[in-house]
Amino acid sequence: TSSFPLTADAAMATGKAKFVGNIWYDGNAPSKYADYWNQITPENATKWGPCEPQQGVYNFSQAKAMYNYCKTNKIPFKFHTLIWGSQYPNWLNNLSGTARKTAIENWYKAAAQNFPDAEYIDVVNEAMPGHAPFPFKNDIGGDNGLYGTGWDWIVWSFEMARKYFPNSKLLINDYNVLNEWSCLDQYIPVVKILKARNLIDGVGCQSHGLEKTSAANLKSRLDRLAATGVPIYISELDLDIADDNTQKNKMQELFPVMYEHSAVKGITIWGYLQGRTWIPNSHLLRSDGSERPAMTWLKQYMAKVPGEDVPVET
Ligand code: XIL
């Protein structure tokens, strides 16, 4: 019989191929965390802004608590994120090109010093056109600098990440790539450029708003992305649906498409507690601790998948 799968203990014991994780809200261990999830992404605590409020002054205390929890319980930790056009420190605006590049490299160094064994790093977040590309990208290579790839600032960001995080799996991360063909088709060339240089270990698909997508489209998009040969990580899944049964039905429709896809190595849900999710109706546990039907179904489903019930990628 398979025991209920999503516990840290069970994850520790088996080392199966996939994880199903969640965010760790800022502050103390959120209630019931270890009952459900076996991978942690800090919600905000490893973003550059909160970590380096003044240049050279670092605050990693919240993130360190999560990281230590992960190490103690042997569950994977994802550092989210190094380069992003949002939640970066204000003081960065006041620097000039070279000084800014040095500041970026110092941020990498500080992160690497404090999280040397982070299993995963979201190196670059939301870089696709029209999203939140890093506004200082010209300081780190621009589009066609030294390498002439069209995405040189991203190549630079990953080269530095390889240098400072040699033990981590390096990921790119973005939204709408599983919701829109046009967005996916902008993403794939970047993934290929990084893969050709051996700079990438996984491609992150945030998946906010995935409730708007059908199972058939989801499957085709995963197949198209998987053809790059780079493992896929669903990184910020939430199903923003107020009605309990509609949410459950959508979870039943979409979750297996992702979990059973051979290229998908892990699924991280972005929040689960009512009142503490970034997207209002995406919670899976009500504030009284009871499960919404989508959560109950998810547990049952995970317990039934043979051989993959207690997942952690090794
Ligand atoms: C969100 C957090 O959940 C919020 O608490 C914060 O106010 C804003 O950021 N894409 C990402 C995440 O990569 O970092 C964002 O997290 C949600 C969208």
Automatic annotation (TrEMBL):
The superkingdom of the source organism is Bacteria
EC numbers listed for it are 3.2.1.8
Q: Where is the active site?
A: E236
Q: Which top-level enzyme class is recorded in the Swiss-Prot or TrEMBL entry?
A: hydrolase
Catalytic reaction list: Endohydrolysis of (1->4)-beta-D-glucosidic linkages in cellulose, lichenin and cereal beta-D-glucans; Endohydrolysis of (1->4)-beta-D-xylosidic linkages in xylans
GH10 domain residues: 26-301
Q: What would you give as a GO molecular function for this chain, any one? A: cellulase activity
What are the entry keywords?
A: Carbohydrate metabolism, Cellulose degradation, Glycosidase, Hydrolase, Polysaccharide degradation, Signal, Xylan degradation
Single GO biological process annotation from the record: xylan catabolic process
Which family, according to UniProt? Belongs to the glycosyl hydrolase 10 (cellulase F) family.
According to UniProt, the name of this protein is Beta-xylanase
**Can you name the source organism?**
Ruminiclostridium cellulolyticum (strain ATCC 35319 / DSM 5812 / JCM 6584 / H10) (Clostridium cellulolyticum)
Q: Which part of the complete protein is shown?
A: 27 to 340 of 541
